[in-house]
Specification:
This protein has about 350 residues and is of the alpha+beta class. Among the domains are: about 110 residues, Sandwich (Immunoglobulin-like), CATH 2.60.40; about 120 residues, Orthogonal Bundle (Cytochrome Bc1 Complex, Chain D, domain 2). Helix content is about 30%, strand content about 20%. The protein is built from six helices and twelve strands. The strands form three sheets. It has a five-stranded mixed sheet with strand order 3-2-1-5-8, covered by helices on one side. It has a five-stranded mixed sheet with strand order 4-10-9-6-7. A hairpin with a 4-residue loop joins strand 6 and strand 7. It is elongated and about 100 Å long. The protein starts with 15 loop residues before the first helix and ends in a 38-residue tail after the last helix. The structure holds dinuclear copper ion (CUA). The site of dinuclear copper ion (CUA) has 9 residues, from loops.
Length: about 350
């Protein structure tokens, strides 16, 4: 949808044409009123110029019709822009079901990406054409912004929190990736490329770069190395909550509050464990802030995710893995299996 605009980057995602259409509308409205005002100004200046020294203009009283017109017409135009923009905003903010997932960490001055199958890239991202790709992103230091002009997609990454964004590429090719937030000396060098491949070529690429270790498996190893497993035991006798089947489900906290165990919650529980203690457990867990970097945290999140949730993806499911998009509470229809530790 939407024709290519001159001087614009190519349109390579499902959103690109829609964003350009709105942009074209904004330009047309601006040009129309800019010309209207300029022409009116000049012609009135000529037509109503002062012709003699003692000329006095007649007294004019207001015109209700005129005032209503110049209030109502602009109001109608800006409401069109608002509704159109809001519709586009929601479409961009809502991750479609069953996306392919990729984890992204911004760091001075590079972009690091990790695929569920374990492939890791720096300043590059390979994705298949025609598949929605969800990016779970964060920063290891300062605010960066992940910007792919051809996809009309830009998302800030903020240290300490996860941002989600998605795109669906529509044509194979290699597209610029920029950091669009000034982040220090080499900000301008924090660039890379997104390579969109035909599905078959992408599968070949995946197989070629295979490390044999999926993201979840890397997380499991970390889980053991950090000795998380001594407390979070799968037999539910540990000092910490059992993690099987927790992801994507509501969790009751010691405060009585209920939160959904999404990516952000898992991450927070690792770096700031006392923030949201699960009901029935003591706040005895030490913080792992500084002990695990953001990539490691993402691996741990992927591992906890792989332990089950509403729709579990095996660690090998790379393409269109049915893992839940950061599930809003309403998107968890199944009654949650409560962690056994609760209510003791
Ligand atoms: Cu990172 Cu600018």
């Amino acid at each position: 949808m939407g024709a290519e605009l001159p001087l614009f980057p190519v349109q390579a995602s499902t959103m690109a044409g829609r964003v350009d259409a709105l942009y074209a509308f904004l330009i047309l409205v601006s040009v129309f009123f800019g010309l209207l005002i300029a022409v009116t100004l000049i012609s009135f200046a000529i037509r109503y110029r002062r012709r003699s020294r003692d000329e006095r203009p007649p007294l004019i009283h207001g015109s209700v019709a005129l005032e209503v017109a110049w209030t109502a017409i602009p109001l109608g135009i800006v409401m069109v822009i608002f509704l159109w923009g809001a519709d586009l905003f929601f479409a961009m903010a809502r991750v479609p079901p069953a996306p392919m997932e990729v984890y992204v960490v911004g760091k001075r001055w590079m972009w690091k990406t990790q695929h569920l199958t374990g492939q890791r890239e720096i300043n590059e991202l390979h994705v298949p054409v025609g598949v929605p790709v969800k990016l779970t992103m964060t920063s290891e230091d300062v605010i960066h912004s992940f910007f792919v002009p051809a996809f009309r997609m830009k998302k800030d990454v903020v240290p300490g929190r996860y941002a989600a964004a998605w795109f669906q590429a529509t044509r194979a090719g290699t597209y610029h990736l920029f950091c669009a937030e000034y982040c220090g000396t080499k900000h301008s060098g924090m660039i890379g490329s997104v390579t969109v491949m035909e599905p078959a070529a992408f599968q070949t690429w995946l197989a070629g770069g295979a490390t044999g270790t999926s993201l979840a498996a890397a997380g499991e190893k970390l889980f053991q190395d950090l000795a998380c497993i001594t407390c979070h035991r799968s037999d539910s006798e540990g000092r910490g909550p059992k993690l099987d089947g927790v992801f994507g489900h509501p969790v009751t906290l010691a405060s009585g509050e209920r939160v959904v165990a999404d990516e952000a919650y898992i991450r927070e529980s690792i770096v700031n464990p006392s923030a949201k203690v699960v009901a029935g457990f003591q706040p005895v867990m030490p913080t792992y802030q500084g002990l695990v970097n953001e990539e490691g945290l993402m691996q741990l999140v992927a591992y906890v995710k792989s332990l089950g949730g509403p729709a579990t993806a095996g660690p090998g499911a790379a393409l269109a893995s049915p893992a839940p998009a950061t599930a809003p509470a309403a998107a968890t229809p199944a009654p949650p299996p409560r962690p056994k530790g609760q209510g003791r």
